[in-house]
Amino acid sequence: MGLGSTSNSPPPLLPPQHREEHTVYGYPTEPYYVILDSAPAPQRRSNGRFLTYAVCGALSIVMIAVAAYFLWPSDPRIEVVRIRLNKIDWRTEKSSGSFLPHLFLDLSMGLTVKVKNRDYLGVYYDYLKVGIAYRGEKIGRVTSVNSAYIPPRGTAYVDATLDIEGFQVLADVIYLLEDIAHGHIPLQTITNFDGYIRLFSLKVPLQAIMSCEVVVDTNQQTVLRQECDLG
Known about the structure:
By secondary structure, this protein is of the alpha+beta class. The chain is 17% helix and 48% strand. The N and C termini lie far apart (145 Å).
């Protein structure tokens, strides 16, 4: 094979060249902006704040409940601890228009009422009203004039005397004559307590009612039995 001959063999491969990488520093030719998202708040701080609010809310509810328990007004509790029969008498007069005589009743009765203040504030009262009736017919009423102050959670005793002179019984003359014949007269007493408490600049009214069934002995001038219930 001569020098001037050609062949179809591929050209020889050159060895790979090593390319060096260079870092170029410089300034951008045009301004640009980068928008960064705000970092989320730490979860621990959010949980602590919620716990603080929950504790403060619970304490507020407890304080309101305690204040309402101590300041919420309650009606006083009254009790008739003693009934004294001072005198009971009657007299009759002839009636021209009826076969039944006119019947007049004289009665003197004393009561001692116990008033219990259940509030944590003092109670003021001006009077105590006591009414008496015979078989539903009102006979008389008395109002005590000794106003007083009952300290918080305190107790007071109030005396009232009911004097009736010459009360004419109209509706139950026959029943009263029968009761006098038996020596026992049933009576009813109703005791009304009206007071108030001072809550800041307000007057909060209070009221209590006690009714009693009383049986008196006309011969011995004594009280045989009494049964009282709250009205």
